# Entry
Amino acid sequence: MNTVNNLMTAIEDTGRDERRGGYSRPVYSSAELDLREWFTIEAQQRGLAVEQDHNGILWAWWDMPDDGRSLEQTRRGALVTGSHLDSVPGGGAFDGPLGVASALAAVDVLKSREQDGSLQRNRALAVAVFPEEEGSRFGVACLGSRLLAGAIEPEKALSLRDADGNTFADIARANGLNPDLMGRDEQVLARIGDFVELHVEQGRGLNTEEFTDHAGRGPAVAVASSILGHGRWRFSISGQGNHAGTTLMSDRADPMVAAAQLVLAVRKTAAAQSDARATIGRVEPVPGGTNVIASRVDVWMDVRHPDDAVTAMLVEKIHGQAQKVAALEGCTVQLTEESYSGTVHFDSALQRSLEQSTARTVPGAPVLATGAGHDAGVLAASVPTGMLFVRNPSGISHSPEEYVEDDDARLGVDALVDALQDLL
Ligand code: GLV
Ligand code: MN
Ligand code: MN
# Structure
């Protein structure tokens, strides 16, 4: 039987980023396509039937034994688990792939239990792989699940561009998808009875004093309660492109100077608001030359807070500050919201079921809120969803240093197996 550790080892060389460190696996890059291929083969070797839906989501089906019903009928209300295979630039090995590998490992155990009679299934099970969870190529996180759930207009999604100027429509087409068929898919949604996503914990939630033992070790698994509301905004600050050597300091309208002040304003504003997080993680000067005063700087901002009204207030406040620092530098600023996901509370009945099963497998497993976004959060508006988190000793994520210990990954699979068995 392939353990989750073996499965993770099998993909440890795929998409390594020598420059940034860690992994860069943007959606529909050769690395992500290789991982999809790996997933497809692993799923088929387990007797699962793999298909891709109109939104590029992979589904690996373990159907009910033939009882005369149509395939469509057996798949309605199925139990679904899985996660994503794409990564942020220079990300860790576990964010996404751990949930997919754990799902495959869980299928192994559940199949052997069915064979020895210790599992009686009442529903079909599917493992799903969602594309562009990170939004690292086209800018909108959870693009696959958003399309499926109708949480983004297909026209908007299709017109998104990557850093090379390719539209999502072009890339989708090049990967065998029909852009005309993308968008909310009632038939696929009707197949999901419950969705349980296992994921690496991405903060220090399992390592707080409240949960750690005398050796400073927290429990291996937690059950999710909620996801912080979060969104992405783009400031475009325009000034006067010019020569670095001939333009007097007093004659400049340099959008990079305004951008620098904006970065500091974001930090200060978020730090003054309890529970707020705000980040500038990406800045792009146009045209971007050492001896060129930029004509425009695009600044991407990520803001998160449990209260959606507070998030809106923070963005408004920061927008005002951006206008002020831009004006002082003789620049103008335009703000565009690229995506927003309100705070999500996971389905209470599913959460209770996960708490009960996990308490048996990992005694003391706590219930945690998370500041990270997930496809389970987007799908929560359409179907019951829940999540399990696996301990991350340092709490570091979206970094090459993200880490999960082998024993914890195996305990994560044990917890997932028991959770799925209770729900099957
Ligand atoms: C995804 O991991 C996010 O929270 O941005
Ligand atoms: Mn992530
Ligand atoms: Mn993730």
Q: What stands out?
A: The CA atoms of residues 222 and 365 lie 5 Å apart. The longest strand covers residues 229-238.
